[in-house]
Amino acid sequence: MAKLTLKNFNEFRELEGKSLPDGDWMTVTQEMINDFAKATGDFQWIHVDVEKAAKDSPFKKPVAHGFMSLAMLSKMLGELIQVKSARMGVNYGLNKVRFPSPVLVNSRLKLVGVISNIQDYGDTGLKITWNCIVEIEGSEKPACAAEFISLMFE
Predict the structure, then answer these.
(1) Is 108 exposed, middle or buried (CB count within 10 Å of its CB: 0-12, 13-18, 19+)?
(2) Structural domain total, the chain
(3) Mean of per-residue pLDDT scores for the chain
(4) What is the per-residue pLDDT for 1?
């Protein structure tokens, strides 16, 4: 999928209320899950112990941390859209987050999103509310549904 590239904030504002193009599928590997465990200190066996998960988990394989799919939103959005005039973007917060379905190791995920609101922020910024759904290939329920807020500055 080609990245949606916009010249400036005026072009970006035209996307308010509109759907983003669907993202590309991304495979969640055991290495990614292990790296996330290292970064967060969450080494619960259901995430990192492949043998125990095969034996004792109802899923019969490791499951990614719920917060891992949430943490990937910035990367996934960055792969979908670029505003050339933006000098910097930062995470601002979340209004609502849910993890309706577990992400099993080697699942494929993609982002489906809508820019629900764009507001001025300070002299040179925008506050953007993104409605994000992280879909799991072959699953009726998504991995993550989040109302994500970011700031972007020119």
Answers:
(1) middle
(2) 1
(3) 96
(4) 62
